[in-house]
């Protein structure tokens, strides 16, 4: 019997680098690239090369120019950032914004990732922020909440929403997982009801409708009612995110904890919740990003946040034509904060091995 020689697979062909599969696709790609270059050049020419930056010429120089009028930002930036806050006290509003940024950065550092340290950072930071904005202590003049506005108010609403809403979300999540049906079903009804309503309706209810149903001593300022409504909306969504993360934890781990005799607090605090937060990290970061952008909705109920401040910046007779530049500047501010949050979320995903490396 003749023995045939073993056959080996043919050598694979050399990998060819192609930018397109067919000539038609190459033409389409080049056309799209040309359009992108054209749009980028037009935008750069409008925003930089043909733009007016100084305030020497005033609105007349902007109207005569072919590019953007950044002079409105130079002339009206205080209104955009500080709103109606008294002019002589705006340094307090700027320092309060810096305080929020500092406590956020400290919270992102692993050194402060313990319960006591993170609580200390937020308690001290929130107290310092409120003391600077409100005044009435250390010789600072008192400024009412009706004068708060601009970027400082936007940051205050965002931080308060997350600071109140996240612990509330944990409570709602644990209550919905209760083995008592009347607790879990009631909590589920509350969560589903809040999630089924648009945020604007909740803010309007807390700002306008709720005072009619509460006694005078319990109404409080409109700003704090809006914060509570925003925190409730945040907590309903975040509770479901955390619950989804808990469902991703293998059931055998909780059963093993029960077999070891661990208490409910130990099972939740040391086994289930850390793994659930790890599983829910991408969705949690996304929820923080959404909450920051949704702070602009408080303009509907009459709060003077950064978007309303921007409207006031170009609302005068001499700058009404420069609304595009004002909105572009506000969009840039939102982009800086939101992009920073998303990049930090990507860092946490790499650190905890969640998502693509």
From TrEMBL:
One MF term in the entry's GO annotations:
transmembrane transporter activity
Q: Which CDD domains match?
A: TM_PBP2
What's an example GO cellular component term for this entry?
Answer: ATP-binding cassette (ABC) transporter complex
Topology of the protein relative to the lipid bilayer: Multi-pass membrane protein
Cite the entry's keywords alphabetically: Cell membrane, Membrane, Transmembrane, Transmembrane helix, Transport
Question: Which PANTHER family does UniProt cross-reference here?
Answer: INNER MEMBRANE AMINO-ACID ABC TRANSPORTER PERMEASE PROTEIN YHDY (PTHR30614:SF41), MEMBRANE COMPONENT OF AMINO ACID ABC TRANSPORTER (PTHR30614)
Give the protein's recorded name: ABC transporter permease
Organism, scientific name:
Aliidongia dinghuensis
Q: What is the lineage of its organism?
A: Bacteria, Pseudomonadati, Pseudomonadota, Alphaproteobacteria, Rhodospirillales
